[in-house]
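User: Can you recover a sequence for this backbone? Please restate the input before giving your answer.

Assistant: Of course. Working from this structure:
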């Protein structure tokens, strides 16, 4: 978090500039923007409309669980091209020469003819759809139609027209759906009627050809064909079957009566006893017998009176027997007649059975045709009923859309909104500035703080030196014991002493990735500070391309390292004391033509071995790493290497590459020194206004 605030503090000018530019742009937008007005119309969209007639509607409304989809469909219809076309035609916008101009646009230059008219219509519809907004709040059926335009009156007219045209469009769709239903039902009725007529003709034709007579009535829609008692043969068969049952019952009754009469005595037959004539004769005979018995007391059997009475009794007996025999014969005759009737009915029944079985084979096709007639007639009746219902309901369904609030001409524009524009521009400026900062902080390998030395370069931090104002000489600041620059190098000296468990290295190389990063100043300051604390120090200026230490130490550069490595002078001749006690310097001497070859020779390695035994510390000021082979060679010979990095310098990968090259040369990188580091830029405090600026180049220039 502290690093983030530090980055913001370092780039505060950039952020302030971005915000200022954004505010200027916002003010320009406010003053240059055309006022925009918004007119709103509110309509209520119900899922089901009020039914004028009983029964279902032609186009039933959606189920309640599908309400959200239904309302979204209505919003899509409102924003459709067809409804925009209705509005344009309702307001005459296609023929309005100034509509596009009143909407703040430029009329399209279209040629005359259908193609040009189509282009103008597309522009009008695009303007309508682009400035229309339909909003539906959650848990509400009230849709807000808003239309924006630079012309307030036009905005209100278009918003109201959208509401009116939507209602008309809704009714038209319902009416068209009903009209389509009527047309479809009418066509189906005609086709079904033809099918009914044709099926009835086929049924009658087949019945005639098969000689089948339907006694149930062929026009009965509920008939069952010839499967029941509908045909003439079947009807006769049923009747004969009933007659046969009756005849059989009569024959059985007559047969039973005859058998009883034939077995029982003649006078014991119930029929005989129940006969009135016989009963009369029996009574007469009983009286005659009674009189005869009474007269026999007075006369002999041969008395004429007795003979006459006996003859009368015998006559009555004969009459009784005759009548009884006649009754018995009648019973027999009934039995014979019943048997004959049964046989006759049985013969007729068997005949009609055969005819019925033959007719059933022919009735199969008849029944198929009959069922087809019934099916077609039932379908025709259902279609006719539905057609009557649709015809009665056509045009009577009320709209499910109603206007809640009509749009009025707005008096205040909705755009521009100064506060919103300024806030948006400020946020945009901040966002752009923060984006630039993100790129600079995360995509650039420039080391901006001591922590970046470890995270970006992977080397420990030895210390840092402060940034000084331009024009202030580092050498002058180093002469001041209490200056921030001197204090910083005191701390670095202490850190170097404690940098390893074996103590202070004998030989240390100071280098950097590029020029002007402060390596020469750092190597001089470290060598001088160690000399001040009683160490015997040798400072070697190994930058054979651009010498610097002769200027910092005030020694002569006539003889130096180049003469020593080429064996033109001895070590004693090139080693010069300085004004600082305990500090000797070997300058570069004359600049050679082949500095890399001289530094890679065994002479340098031998020199380091010799001076290491004579001095407590040998400090080597090496050239930059990038583009040169000198620094890796020197780092390989020395016990330790210190990398000097300038703070806030866009290296573009140079620092990382330098560290990789040094490690490839097997250099022991002791750590890094961050130079020109502004503590305030990292948010650590106010600090002192110190620093320095100088350049690195070939030839005689100001010392690093």
């Amino acid at each position: 978090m502290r690093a983030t605030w530090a980055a913001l503090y370092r780039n505060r000018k950039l952020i302030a500039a971005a915000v200022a530019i954004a505010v200027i742009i916002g003010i320009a937008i406010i003053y240059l923007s055309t006022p925009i007005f918004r007119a709103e119309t509110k309509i209520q969209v119900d899922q089901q409309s009020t039914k004028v007639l009983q029964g279902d509607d032609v186009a039933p409304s959606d189920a309640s669980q599908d309400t959200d989809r239904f309302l979204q469909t209505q919003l899509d219809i409102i924003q459709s091209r067809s409804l925009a076309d209705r509005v344009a035609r309702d307001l005459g916008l296609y023929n309005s020469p100034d509509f596009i101009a009143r909407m703040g646009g430029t009329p399209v230059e279209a040629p005359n003819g259908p193609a040009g008219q189509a282009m103008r219509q597309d522009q009008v519809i695009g303007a309508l759809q682009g400035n229309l907004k339909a909003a539906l709040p959650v848990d509400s059926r009230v849709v807000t139609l808003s239309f924006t335009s630079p012309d307030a009156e036009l905005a209100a007219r278009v918003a109201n027209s959208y509401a009116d045209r939507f209602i008309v469009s809704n009714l038209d769709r319902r009416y068209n759906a009903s009209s389509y239903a009527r047309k479809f039902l009418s066509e189906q009725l005609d086709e079904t009627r033809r099918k009914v007529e044709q099926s009835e003709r086929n049924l009658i034709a087949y019945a005639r050809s098969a000689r089948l007579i339907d006694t149930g009535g062929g026009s009965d829609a509920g008939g069952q064909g010839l499967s029941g008692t509908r045909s003439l043969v079947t009807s006769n068969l049923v009747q004969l079957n009933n007659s046969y049952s009756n005849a059989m019952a009569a024959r059985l009754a007559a047969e039973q009566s005859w058998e009883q009469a034939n077995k029982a005595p003649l006078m014991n037959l119930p029929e005989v006893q129940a006969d009135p004539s016989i009963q009369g004769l029996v009574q007469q005979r009983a009286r005659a017998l009674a009189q005869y018995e009474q007269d026999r007391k007075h006369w002999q059997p041969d008395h004429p009176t007795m003979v006459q009475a006996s003859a009368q009794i015998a006559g009555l007996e004969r009459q009784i027997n005759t009548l009884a025999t006649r009754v018995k014969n009648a019973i027999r005759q009934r039995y014979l007649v019943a048997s004959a009737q049964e046989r006759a009915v049985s013969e007729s029944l068997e005949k009609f059975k055969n005819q019925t079985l033959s007719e059933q084979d022919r009735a199969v096709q008849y029944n198929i045709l009959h069922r087809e007639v019934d099916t077609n007639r039932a379908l025709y009746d259902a279609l006719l009923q539905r057609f009557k219902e649709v015809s009665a309901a056509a045009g009577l369904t009320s709209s499910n859309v109603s206007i809640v609030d009509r749009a009025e001409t707005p008096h205040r524009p909705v755009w521009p909104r100064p506060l919103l524009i300024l806030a948006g521009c400020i946020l945009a400026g901040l966002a752009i500035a923060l984006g630039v900062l993100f790129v600079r902080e995360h995509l650039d390998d420039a080391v901006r703080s001591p922590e970046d030395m470890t995270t970006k370069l992977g080397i420990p931090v030895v210390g840092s030196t402060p940034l000084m104002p331009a024009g202030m000489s580092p050498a002058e600041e180093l002469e001041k014991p209490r200056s921030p620059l001197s204090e910083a190098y005191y701390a670095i000296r202490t850190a170097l002493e404690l940098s390893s468990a074996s103590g202070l290295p004998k030989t240390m190389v100071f280098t950097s990735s590029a020029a002007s990063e402060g390596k020469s100043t750092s190597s001089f300051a470290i060598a001088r500070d160690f000399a001040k604390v009683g160490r015997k120090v040798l400072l070697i200026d190994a930058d054979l391309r651009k010498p610097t230490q002769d200027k910092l130490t005030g020694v002569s550069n006539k003889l130096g390292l180049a003469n020593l490595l080429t064996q033109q002078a001895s070590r004693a001749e090139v080693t010069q004391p300085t004004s600082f006690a305990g500090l000797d310097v070997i300058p570069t001497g004359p600049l050679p033509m082949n500095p890399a070859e001289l530094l890679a020779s065994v002479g340098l390695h031998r020199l380091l071995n010799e001076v290491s035994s004579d001095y407590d510390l040998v400090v080597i000021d090496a050239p930059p790493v990038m583009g040169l082979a000198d620094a890796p060679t020197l780092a390989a010979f020395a016990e330790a290497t210190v990398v000097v990095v300038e703070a806030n310098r866009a290296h573009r990968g140079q620092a990382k590459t330098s560290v990789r090259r040094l490690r490839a040369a097997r250099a022991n990188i002791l750590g890094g020194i961050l130079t020109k580091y502004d503590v305030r830029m990292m948010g650590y405090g106010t600090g002192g206004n110190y620093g320095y600026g100088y350049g690195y180049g070939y030839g005689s220039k100001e010392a690093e």
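That completes the design. The radius of gyration is 66 Å.
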